[in-house]
Amino acid sequence: MKALVFLCLCCLAINVSAQDFQYNFKATEVKFSGTGSISIKHDSLATAYSTAHWRNTGLREPAGWSSGSTMNATANFEFFCAKAPDSISIRGLGNDTINLPMRTVKLLPGTGMYTCTYPVAVASKSFANGVVNYYAPFNIYWEISFDKGLTWYRADTTDHKIYVTKSAPMIETTNFKHFHTVLELSCKNAKGQTTDTGIISKCWSEFTDQIVLNHKGDSLHYYKNYLTSNTQLPLLLRHRTAQCYTFAQLFAALIKIQGVNKTSNYVFITPRAVASPCGGTINRFLVKNWSFIKKSDSSSCPSFPYKNVGTTLTSTGYTHTSADVTDQTGIPGSCNSNPSSFFNNHQICKFDGVYYDACYGVKFSSLIDIKTKAFDAWGVQLSTGTWNFTDDLSRADLSETITTW
Amino acid sequence: MHIWSKTLLVLLAFFNCIFYAQAQWRIERKIIIEDGQFYFFTVDDETQLATLYSGLVSQKLKGAKKRLFPIGREYTEPFNPLAFDINADEFVGVNWILNSMNGRYDAIKKISIKDWSKGRADWTNEDWGQASFDMPVAAPNDPWERMLEVNNTLENCFFDIIQSNTLVMGVCNQGQLWIKEYKGNIWKNRAEIKVPFKQCFTLINRPNGKIGLLDAHANYYQIDEQKNELSLIQKGNYVKAQIVIVDKDKKENYLIANEAIEAGIYNSLDQVIKESAIKLH
């Protein structure tokens, strides 16, 4: 009899019906927590995302944990029914059978509907230990029961972006934060990896096509503006154009976010300080390709015979009063087919003896390898506003200064 | 106390707090006093560019003239503040801006302060950066190069520079400190000392003509060039960030908390030193 009374008809429009009455049950908010959760930072602000990860208003914010951790979740719901019971049971079914257990909750009367809260609950199992994962999406299928779990009805689905790192990310520093794009690129590429070597290899694949995008799909440019002075990772993520240091930092960050601790991973290269036969110190190099037109100084400086006068850097390239050497399209950089290519120094990564140049998506086995494969010339300034060049790369070598980023 | 007095005190405290919060000078390493003028720098962590503050030591600090200066330093860990000295209107310092066009071998610059007393309102940050790279070289950065020849893996690497009659540079890396002097267009070794530094140090010209060194905990040493060791002069015991005041007029050096400078901006530097600075022997 009581059951029959309970089965009274509701008068509202329905999305779901069970037995002889109709109701509407929808999620309004989901929040995640739990030991091992990662506080993910906005790219632009380096501030943490808010604690609500999903709202029916359209809010979608990512969540992350280190592997072996267990998700905790709480959720709010609205329940539309003319005559609701005092309580209902709720559970959530997630990917990889990571489920949220049944909880029986009270329905509280609101304006035109009822509300209820699924209290913080620990998921039925942890994220697989020691393996990177990337859920895009991690769906939670919310189900409700009116008979304390005997019969379940699918009620609503919430979708989430969830990152799982192999180990706890390395501690944040001034320029290394647990940025959204860092987690996105690292976990997406290294999904399924269980070893440091595998993680490095898969994260590197993000750079090899010279198209590096942030978590929204926007391009991260290597020298979109030749005049950019952005040299730290937060500035690359905020402004999306930057110098070489930031791409090396980005690659290193993709590794660090997985908790992979590699020291001496950050290499500053510059011409070894030697004097040129014409005077001055060799302190510039040209990255391919440059066109060598004529040797204006073949008599006065045969070792560095190519001369550019009045070189000015603009936002899109170089202008000269006169030039024996001119920039051509050569080695493309990230999201830039012809980036800046006249430098004093460059920044790359080094893992397990291999040099990784994230700006161009290329690897090198040695410093000499960098010189021979990537450079067209060395440069020296013999007078103000004048640069002389040689295409004889044997005249100088690179030196490296190694730090840990 | 009369209610109006109390009200006035509350208002004064309120405005002092606002100005204190607004000032927020993070002074790089030291303040230099010469010919009755003070000079100090702050550096913007994002643009890496330095702002020079100057004024009379007898006038209120808040009236300090400020303008961008063609020098700077990167902000990476471990942090090394701007390394510089000023003598007779000439700035000498290390331009450690991180930029693909800035060479470390040519980073020790000398710049006339007078030439840069006026701002360049139409300059962009990139213009300032480029100008800093092109500043005249005071000396080749051989101390840095020689340090890399010994060990090119940097760990707890810091440096500083001072100038009196000659230029002196200190560079440390992996627990080894070199003190070198630039004289007659060549760099000469003054000392090589094992040090436990995990944070930056500051070199100081002592009144006795010797070189002093302040570590990050404000322990004050004299560099013993005979024994190649640091001799402790004054033990530091400070919780707050300290900066050095180099008074070249009185030939005295002081230590003061950065926040004491900020709190005293309505006073003259002379007054602030009297009230809050500790003399270094």
Q: What descriptive keywords fit this protein?
A:
heterodimer; A: 405 residues; mainly beta; Coagulation Factor XIII, Chain A, domain 1; 2 domains; 6-stranded antiparallel β-sheet; 6 helices; 28 strands; disordered N terminus; B: 281 residues; alpha+beta; Tachylectin-2, Chain A; 7-stranded mixed β-sheet; 4-stranded antiparallel β-sheet; 5 helices; globular
Largest sheet of chain B: 7 strands, mixed
- So, CATH architecture of chain B? 5 Propeller
CATH topology of the largest domain in chain A: Coagulation Factor XIII, Chain A, domain 1
Order of helices and strands of chain B: HEEEEEEEHHEEEEEEEEEEHHE
State the CATH architecture of the largest domain in chain A: Distorted Sandwich
Low-confidence residue ranges of chain A = 1-18
Tell me the overall shape of chain A. elongated
Given helix and strand content, the structural type of chain B is alpha+beta
**Count of all domains of chain A:** 2
**Quick one: how many beta strands of chain B?**
18
Q: What global shape of chain B is seen?
A: globular
The number of helical segments of chain B is 5
Kindly report the spatial arrangement of strands forming the biggest sheet of chain B. Answer: 4-3-2-1-16-17-18
* Most extensive chain interface and residues per partner: A-B, 29 and 29 residues
The total of helices of chain A stands at 6
What's the multimeric state?
Answer: heterodimer
